[in-house]
What we know:
This protein is of the alpha+beta class. It has helices spanning 22-32, 50-69, 83-87, 90-96, 122-132, 177-198, 244-248, 273-282, 308-327, 342-351, 362-367, 388-413, 421-428, 449-456; strands at residues 36-38, 46-48, 73-74, 80-82, 102-106, 109-117, 141-150, 164-174, 203-207, 219-226, 232-242, 252-254, 260-262, 264-271, 299-303, 332-334, 356-360, 369-374, 381-384, 415-417, 440-444, 461-466, 475-476, 483-484, 487-491.
Amino acid sequence: xxxxxxxxxxxxxxxxxxxxxxxxxxxxxxxxxxxxxxxxxxxxxxxxxxxxxxxxxxxxxxxxxxxxxxxxxxxxxxxxxxxxxxxxxxxxxxxxxxxxxxxxxxxxxxxxxxxxxxxxxxxxxxxxxxxxxxxxxxxxxxxxxxxxxxxxxxxxxxxxxxxxxxxxxxxxxxxxxxxxxxxxxxxxxxxxxxxxxxxxxxxxxxxxxxxxxxxxxxxxxxxxxxxxxxxxxxxxxxxxxxxxxxxxxxxxxxxxxxxxxxxxxxxxxxxxxxxxxxxxxxxxxxxxxxxxxxxxxxxxxxxxxxxxxxxxxxxxxxxxxxxxxxxxxxxxxxxxxxxxxxxxxxxxxxxxxxxxxxxxxxxxxxxxxxxxxxxxxxxxxxxxxxxxxxxxxxxxxxxxxxxxxxxxxxxxxxxxxxxxxxxxxxxxxxxxxxxxxxxxxxxxxxxxxxxxxxxxxxxxxxxxxxxxxxxxxxxxxxxxxxxxxxxxxxxxxx
Length: 494
């Protein structure tokens, strides 16, 4: 009896075109790039494979360096949180209650107090902050945690929404509201910098509405990115927690005047959904496209030879050139695998998003040149071996710049204004993840949960209120008619 090949083993099959089925295209790109697969034996979870994890490691490094440069230190807190901790902040537990996974038995015995598997760590970190903070001299306390979290999702999609995912969560405590506000905005800008300068993904910096803010926060900020189908993806959030968790966990300090006060807190985080954002921002119908700054392999050499006597000379030159590029700090792979045709190797690295393929065969060896093939669709070009490191670095820099430029152009072309609810509905009516064609719609809307609810009726939401008014200033709310200071951004999102 023959066995059916599992769904993840589809390498070398065609990728569904974006225009035909965007959701299927996204799934195909991830599987063909060997980034991840569904962990079918664990509901809603995924296995991040080595290539996908290598991208996450590069993202981690970019973020971690910036966190430490702004004074934050890494720590780690328990995965299991006493259930009573979540109940101390009413809005927080209400917001997370449907997503909680709870441990009720351990060591073969029912627990006297149940544990919640970490959905986020404000509560348990608040408990320890209360132990660590006594005086204004202990502030600010700037902590970051790299961890996994569990949120029980009904509908999952690789990287974008899974029951368990990886992230970082920053948690800070301050002596004043002003310091906390400055921290929340600073970290939002760190996220925006990584998104734009490293991921080549433009974002809108904004404030979440009251209906969309983090459960337990006073104010939530976000960066919103546009995917190739025009849908929005919340790529990072930063929250002003005020004194809500400080009061729930008695996080007090003696201020400079000698009286006791509650600290002011922030929390902020990004997750492995950024890899999903990378896929949907840059990839094409051939497969994954990675910006050079995030590619685990920035260039791959494809040696070409037919005869054994050509093999040694070609491979010797290829390895010598690869060594020169590595000395310049570039991430280089030499594909000297036997038993695979050059065509197979080109296809392999193309689907995995390697920014640059470098071809060298006997003719190139004789001409002292190489053939360069950029992954972003640029033309093949023959270049001399002399000065190759400078040539490759310039090509990669140009590719990084072009990817950001392309994404900015796409966002600009697919952002429109509307002056009535009916107009918003008409613009978004035909936008589905399967067919693409989505838009960001800028409209005047009051920051009121009742207004947000109107957009939920046609599966859209207020993505954010931009921190910088990109449009035309004050206007009348398209729902209530009341005067509001600026337009918000509305769209369908992941």
